[in-house]
Amino acid sequence: MKIASIEAIPLEAPFARIFGGADKVPPQLYRPASHFQTIVRSGQFATLVLVRAEDGTTGVGEAFGLPDPVANASLVKRVIAPGLIGVSIGDPWEMLAEHRAYFAAMGHGRGKAAEAVSAVDTALWDLKAKLAGVPLATLLGGTPGPVPVYVSPVPFLPTPDESAHAAVAFRAQGWRAIKLKIGRGIATDLDHIGAVRAAIGPDADLMLDVNCAYDEETAIALGRQLGRFPVTWYEEPIPPGDPAALARVRSSSAVPIATGENEFMVSDFQALIEAGAADFLMPNIARAGGVSGLMRIGRLCADAGVGLSPHGVGSCVSVAAALHICRAAPGFAFYEANKLLNPLRDDMPAERLHLVEGAYITPGTIGHGGDPRPDFLIDYRVNS
User: Fold this and answer.
1) Residues with active-site annotation
2) Nearest Cα to 61, choosing from 308, 325, 299, 300?
3) Which of 16, 32, 101, 199 is 20 to 30 A from 4 via CA?
4) What is the pLDDT of residues 62-88, one digit of tens each?
5) How far is CA 307 from the centre of its chain?
6) pLDDT per residue over 324-351, tens digit each?
7) What is the CATH T-level fold of the domain 139-373, as seen in this structure?
8) In the CATH hierarchy, which fold is given to the domain comprising 3-134+375-379?
């Protein structure tokens, strides 16, 4: 069977459209974390990729949409697709090897080019599973079933009491693990952490996410104080790109370190492991090599005794595919159930995921099961 066509579709769901005007959007949606304080988050974005076989069977993948989904779509249509149309469907990692090498040689081994390759890889795996008539997890060597998850985020809210109230609301919905966004200064962070930790009770996991807000010195200073709270991990305390610096933060931290959502290449994750920089690695399927990349990173994690905890943002496509990987990849620990308002994740699929005893249940449908509703591809498409 050969590839007949490849289509890339940029999607945007502006918050202003959802709420009926920019002035009606709750402020915490525009500025949910430290890296959205100056350049605000205006909505949700995704670039979907549809790879069709000669018989019409279609696999669906996704490239990370922020900050703009059009660039990924252009790379897929103009650079990747011409080299794959008419090619026999085989191992996706091998099928995309020349594209990865090309982008790396051109100085584009990371960023939007890596995200575009990731989307095509996931679409190819979904296509292969559909052609085989099996769930993606099964094709990867696992089985469909429950995936332990944590919910995020408790965003930047004005007061510790408001953060605690939001966390308690998550607990009431059945979530057993919760992530709090921090990064507003050590004293403010500690106030919010303390309030949330007390509010959710001792039997709930608490993750902390700095979103790269601190320099090494500040990150070390805060990390040393976190031992007073039961904390599952301290995420992205400093910007990516310096594994040695993160290793120094880790060596001083009273709690485990998580990182990786802003990395792109398997070698990036290998470097973090070799530096002793992390206890949990958090690759994003829509930027770190798709299904093939995450399976490889999972093997690195298993060999090193590091937890694999995939980043859980994106549309229904990324979420569905990542959950199947969680059922098959070695080293898996947690998956992130992001609950920032996102119709591309929650309203676009035919079926929503359901939380059962602290886990999402990966269905036994053919492929990854996250195919989008056609009307969404029309209503939310970006004119490019």
Assistant:
1) 311
2) 325
3) 101
4) 999 988 899 999 999 999 999 999 999
5) 15
6) 999 999 999 999 999 999 999 999 998 7
7) TIM Barrel (3.20.20)
8) Enolase-like; domain 1 (3.30.390)
